[in-house]
Amino acid sequence: MQRFDLAQKLIREAGERLREAQLEPGTIQQKTGHQDLVTDWDAATEQFLRREILGAFPRDAIVGEEYPDAGSGEVTWYLDPIDGTTNFINQRRNYAISIGCWRGESPLFGLVLDVERQTLYAAESAQGAWREGQRLHVSACREIEGLLVDTPGVLHTFLESHPWQAGLIHLAQDVRAVRCLGSVALELCAVAAGEADAFITLRSSPWDHNAARIILTEAGGALCTLDGLPLPLDKKSTVLAANSMELQARLLASYCCAEKEN
Question: Which of 20, 66, 75, 219 is the most buried (most CB within 10 A)?
């Protein structure tokens, strides 16, 4: 079985397990505080994915959220077993499983499963982006006042002090609306699907975005850091995503880089 085929099979199966999961007392823990949670199901899902992937491709490497990196092969899998754990706990919706696969610095494929909606976003390099067989395209909006902007965390993006705070508050006042879903992968997929026009986060890890970024770029979008640098593959970073390089450049010039220089 090819990697892409295996990944689709595994992400569907993992989704079925999460939809049936019961959150019993003691299965929810804090990582760094009461707003940073993890469940036994995060760990169990990643264990399942790791075991099956390495069983089929033992020379591949894996980078995941819940366990140390494994392997050092040319092909690396980036796994987020539950992107949006708080949503999983509180809402039982708006959370995702994310699988990204890269050969060195080159993307192979990305998969993001909206678990409760049983909706799979998928992209292979140079093959376009799809949602359950329907081709995805970014929106055509380029005017600031018409933009819908997503962010996974209002507190970190707009209320806490950081070098881009004033510029991003200005942006929030200029656009049509800002929405917060609480899942990096699903919000990047919303930009890919044309349901949002841009996305901003102050902190994202490789397992958060390395699948969805493939889907977004294959749908015609663009990503970088808030410094305007290429999005790194192997470390945490800020993320600015937009429906085009044109809009990305405009946002950087008007709301991000200019503020940081001040």
Answer: 219
